[in-house]
Amino acid sequence: MYSPIKAGMIKRNKNLPSQQNMRYEMIFMDERQLMDIVKLQDFIIQSLTDKEIFRTHPADYFRKHLQTENSVIGTFTNDGLIAYSVLYFPGDSEGNFGVDIDLHRDELDKVAHLATVAVHPAYRGNSLQRMMQGIHLEAAREMGFEHACCMVSPKNHSNLQNMFSHGLIIRALKVKFDQRLRYIMHKHLDYPHLICPEEIRIKSSDVEGQICLLKRGYLGFGMIQSPDGFVVSYGRAWA
Fold first, then answer.
1. What domains are defined for the chain?
2. Do the Cβ atoms of 181 and 207 come closer than 8 Å?
3. Which of 50, 65, 202, 210 has the smallest set of CB atoms within 10 Å of its CB?
């Protein structure tokens, strides 16, 4: 028997004529729901027009995380599993995103990754990703972790906005797994970043310009949609 960590009502096919009210429950998952995750992942990747923005994983990846308590959150309705979020503890390894943002080696075992999140297309627009990741950030802090990191495709504006809403900032922009360009984002769970009032706005498509700003010590802290497309805001951290 699972105890819900959050429950309520959401919309299926939000803002469409077929919109329905649906009850949802969020739970911490275990290995018994492995195939539910795999099936949802496969459905989502098939539904994407730009598959580059979503990184898929084999079943063993999810099995490993499901064996760690509180690492995987699942959201369920009468349709079954409709969203999941994975929290990962990389330890002192090369895959730790703390390496990408030059954290001291002694800090690496204090890093938690917001590793992957997915929402069924029929349930997007209900802030499920934001809710699940908020739960995971609080869980990581309560477990004694001090840093939260994640990587986000520059093309995935929805995911990027969600990360900004949680206080994560862009610390690096580089080619990562599968030779795909990714932002590396970071939040200190006890001491959030404070950005100076000075602001530089740059198109999200200007990769070289953003890399140059990051090398100069600027941090990406927000994004807006302009007539020319999406624009990312950069500023310097308070000394």
1. 6-145 (3.40.630.30), 195-239 (no CATH)
2. yes
3. 50
